[in-house]
Amino acid sequence: MEVCYQLPVLPLDRPVPKHVLSRRGAISFSSSSSLFGAPDPRQLSQRRGAISYDSSDQTALYIRMLGDVRVRSQVGFEPERRSSHPYLCIDFRTLHTRLSCGSSPADSGTEKRVHRLLSFQRYLHSSRLLRGIPHQIPLHILDEDYSGQARCMLEKVGNWNFDIFLFDKLTNGNSLITLTLHLLNQYGLVDLFQLDMVKLWRFLVLVQEDYHNDNPYHNSVHAADVTQAMYCYLQEPMLSKSLTSYDILLGLFAAATHDLDHPGVNQPFLIKTDHYLATLYRNTSVLENHHWKSAVGLLRETGLFSHLPAEDSMNMERELGSLILATDISRQNDYLSRFRTHLDQDSLCLSNGSHRHFVLQMALKCADICNPCRPWELSKQWSEKVTEEFFEQGDIEKKHKLEVSPLCDRETNTVGNIQIGFMTYVAEPLFGEWARFSDTRLSQTMLGHMGLNKASWGGLQQEQTAVSEEAELSVAGADAAGSRSKEIPQGSRES
Questions:
Q1: Rounded distance, CA 249 to CA 231, Å?
Q2: What DSSP element (H or E) covers 29?
Q3: Do residues 64 and 364 touch, judged by C-beta distance below 8 A?
Q4: Strands 51-54 and 59-62, how do they pair?
């Protein structure tokens, strides 16, 4: 993270004065001074930086700040996840390590666990948000160098071409926090529901941290992308004129938390490895139940809705779960047939609360799998990421002598054939019915992109097939030539 604040030049190895801890600046907290890779604090005197606070010995390292120096945090330590649970049979902490890297278990065992890293500058920014800064300017969490570009992007947050990958870079990896906070403020939900900004900020930080960003696909950027897509659907005329503020709050929170603490493997994997979550939820919507319970746990931990009557808070938790459970892809046909029946009979009445909730479920389902409907440049990236996550699961299954799950074998599947199958059997039926419900420019744009993307994957498949056939022919020709050359000496002896 970049900071541009100036700190005084102070001696090294002094106890941290209270007035310094209250100053503006970049003060990072850690549980080990080895975070900076130098056993001797004075070796850090040449380092650009600010104040690092070591909780183990209650001392701080004061490092010279030269004018408008940018301090970049390059620390790649993974924070402790509050909702992650140990997995049975397999050590999932090594899920995403390359099998070919050759690292030994002893090497990984020596890595020191570092507690959640929270920069003091970010903490002070959030504190100033709560001390009277107007709600309509929620971007104080951004670094100054990037806030202008990120703000420009947020002005077009309802654009279907919104590049969430670029936005995540501009927000220094905080796309989910920034986007969700912006949308809540844009709808006026913070004031309307009297949400405590300290609790809201803490809730969003914990939500983002509990996504596993070492997952190629199911990470906080995916959650931010789904939240942005959900906002686009909420802006559709059929929904915007019917949904209540309560519905919108519920929809945004469900989108932000719908894959919370996703382990990067699917439900069949959890079942065949006898994972305790599969037992707990009786092999039914295992991941979705876990996402829901994890979100409820964070709501209760932060007390975000503690000011509401207990009955209202419980209803919100229950309806949040109903939305998240709807994203279970194994129940796709159930929801789709029900949606199709409503459309055939023209029986959807959005003045009815249960019907509005059902439409929210369908909107979240569309948002969750909308990647094939994005422009090719974005859709292709998502397709490669989700396929890589499938293949990594397949690699783990092979390593542990388990049956490889469908679509997870990188030797027999390609990105193209997986995506074409997904569009044909899952995405096209769902978005076709959504276009019947909301026949708007956005719906037609999504269907158009999906058709073009499907054709693009088909073209790539043909190119790959042609290249492989040429390679096979060249190998066969080389073999034939080799066999003929071996026969010549034999013929010359006969002559």
A1: 11
A2: strand 27-30
A3: no
A4: antiparallel
Contact 355, 348 (CB under 8 A): yes
Phi-psi map region of 261: left, alpha, beta (phi>0 left; psi -120 to 50 alpha): left
Query: 470 pLDDT band (50/70/90 cuts)?
Result: confident
Can you name the residues that pair with 30 across neighbouring β-strands?
Answer: 54
Q: 427-435 long-range contacts, Cβ below 8 Å, gap at least 24?
A: 427/369, 427/372, 427/373, 429/336, 430/332, 430/336, 430/365, 430/366, 430/369, 431/366, 431/373, 433/336, 433/339, 433/340, 433/343, 434/362, 434/366
**Is 284 strand, coil or helix?**
coil
pLDDT of residue 469: 74
H/E segment holding residue 421: helix 415-422
Instruction: Please give the angle made by the CA atoms of 397, 398 and 399, to the nearest 5 degrees.
Output: 90
Going by C-alpha positions, the residue among 24, 46, 22 that lies closest to residue 36 is: 46
Q: What is the pLDDT of residue 487?
A: 56
449 is catalytic: no
Please state, in angstroms and rounded to a whole number, the distance separating the CA atoms of residues 316 and 127: 27
DSSP annotation of 140: G
DSSP E strand stretches across 58-163: 59-62
How many CB atoms sit inside 10 A of residue 384's CB? 14
Which DSSP state fits 89? S
DSSP label of 119: B
Q: Could you report the per-residue pLDDT of 377-414, keeping only the tens digit for each?
A: 999 999 999 999 999 999 999 999 999 999 999 999 99
Three-class SS state of 172: coil
State the DSSP code for 352.
S
**Cα atoms in the 13 Å half-sphere on the side-chain side of 219:** 18
Tokens for 153, please give them.
């992007």
- pLDDT score of 484: 62
CB count within 10 Å of CB 256 equals 27
Tell me the per-residue pLDDT of 233-273, one tens digit each, with 9 for 90 and over. 999 999 999 999 999 999 999 999 999 999 999 999 999 99
The SS3 of residue 28 is strand
Tallying the residues shown for the chain, one arrives at: 495
Residue with tokens 């604040």: 5
User: What are the DSSP calls for 94-149, one per residue?
Assistant: GTTS-TTS---HHHHHTSPP-PPP-BHHHHHHHHHHTTT--TT--GGGS-HHHHHH
Decide: residue 270, CB within 10 A, 0-12 exposed, 13-18 middle, 19+ buried: buried
> Per the residue annotation, which of 182, 218, 258, 291 is the catalytic one?
218
Q: Which residues of 206-234 are buried (b: 16+ CB within 10 A; e: fewer)?
A: bbbbbbbeebbbbbbbbbbbbbbbbbbbb
The model's pTM is 0.71
Give yes or no for a contact between 53 and 25, defined as CB atoms under 8 angstroms apart: no
Interacting residues of 449 by C-beta distance below 8 A, sequence separation 6+: 372, 373, 374, 375, 376, 379
The band of 477, judged by pLDDT with boundaries at 50, 70 and 90, is low
